[in-house]
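#random but structural
TW: two for the price of one
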Amino acid sequence: MYDLIHSTAMRFHTLLLILVGVIAITPCIAQPSAEDAITGLLQASADAWNAADLDGHVAMYRDSTSFMTGNGPVYGRSYTRDLLGRFFFRDGENIQDLRFEQITVRPLGETHALVTGRFVLSGGGEDERSGWYSLVWEWTGERWAIIHDHSS
């Protein structure tokens, strides 16, 4: 009986040492910083806009996002999409290309960030238009998403 208990304990001890060793050599994969993640999402959003993919452009917004207009805030990603489509797209195509400049990401704790920068619309035979924006981003537990957009 002693041999069976001793043998089982030794196997358990060996297994435990192997598991500790595997954990010790497994690289830790860190979540990207808010700055890296959000900057990448903004670039993907501009790329979608420039490919006339308005749904891809607004994918970074939460469903309940607020968007500040000259008449006050409007709510919802679908309303924001419709608003942008009405003013900046024609026949399903973007009127001008979009790029973001001077992006600054300021973390507001671990789950929120304030992002400021400049947007530039150019091309399409139109005069270049630009303005400033401030975006409030939230970590949803799965992704960073815009919960408020104030662009002027």
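TW: number two ↓
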Amino acid sequence: MNLICCDATTGKTPAPAMRILESPLGPLRAAAVREGICFLDFDAPEYEKRMERDIAATFGIPSVKARNTHLTKLAKELDEYFAGKRREFSVPLVVSGTPFQVRVWEALSRIPFGATRTYADVAADIGSPSAFRAVGNANGKNRIVILIPCHRVIASGGDLGGYGGGLPRKQFLLGLEKKSI
């Protein structure tokens, strides 16, 4: 998966379109700009505030409820994923983060469907084997859940570790992928 990096806006980007998508894990809040999906997270009041804050910081403007071809494609691909009919997503992703965070998110995107990696594995993959704690921090700053599969990262002892969406959702996603192999 190719990630498009986005710097702070110059004021030329139209407001990101926002949409609520239904899923077996509850509603998902998604946002997209002209270049691709820039936000996907679980819908709850605390996530809505985080999305608005992140989008405003990245693009300099709030999101609006609007149509966007990337959101339409995302809805279809997520439906296929949850039905066990899709292993990879083709919608382009737009991320904003430090170079280290982007390297971590790219490494997460390379974790195969149905597989897991430890924080130490991801740190080694990006050439910083001692940075496993920083990998965990970058993992937690991922704002495009499921598509950048942070749920596939587990603790080195085999425990699930943490997950911003809650461990039951992480268990569900890992179970769905194992069942769909």
